[in-house]
Amino acid sequence: MSLVEHLQELRRRVVISMLALLAGTVVGFVWYQSAPAGLLPLGEIIRGPYCNLPADLRADFTGDGECRLLATTPFEMFMLRLKVGFLAGIVMSSPIWLTQIWAFITPGLHRNEKRYTFSFVTLAVTLFVLGAMLAYFVLDKGLYVLMSIGSEVQVAALTGHEYYSFMLSLIVIFGVSFELPLVIVMLNLAGLLRYEHVRDKRRMISVGLFIFAAFITPGQDPFSMIALGAAMSLLVELAFQFCRIRDKKKSAQRPAWMDTDDESASGPIAAPEPVQASPRPVHADYFRDVL
Fold it and tell me: Which of 21, 52, 144, 291 has the fewest CB atoms within 10 Å around its CB?
């Protein structure tokens, strides 16, 4: 394909991804307040960790005992609903835009590498959802610890903007961080990363993951840091074990002679021998015959 054709292909993939994202955002925006039978509204699900706090830890602005967050600006509730719908749209449309990304890359790959398309999309979506679920669990369990500290002198009166921003950023950070093992597996499948490269560095990598978790988590609280660091360390170790098994299997299928260097393959080189022990003079008649 020419450069113009590549750009046209990229534009087509981007348009399809944006349309899928727009459709998912509309569904998420409607789902925020209205849900089909058997499902809770998305707003109720996201507000769950805050509403699970004991009543004495939450401020009651209406006097009816209902769990409500505080809005301080006229457009805050609309923008929060739009933000939640957009995040839900990213998650729901992820199979489509991940497929478009992979479809744009695969023409430059070998035939056997194209077979990983379905597995790549499935694992990417699964890992993101698992990260989002862990973030929700961490917030559900950790929010009580954070809000109960100093409850004798203060009460939690969170605004919707503060609470939703904290929760959505936590979900995105956990979901994206959970894609790291998939990146490691892809590098190994592409031949850019082997297990022997990281075999002796796994402890250092684990420490680096905890340091990364300490800086990337929005609240910088130890609870979410430990949860993210431990989960990433476990998933990265599983990815390394995949690399180890695949490299071992690949080495078993590779003939031993292909790893032999040139000197070993040629064998010992004997000492040079003269072509003739003593020179023999050329008779003058030889030149006469040649001419």
Answer: 291
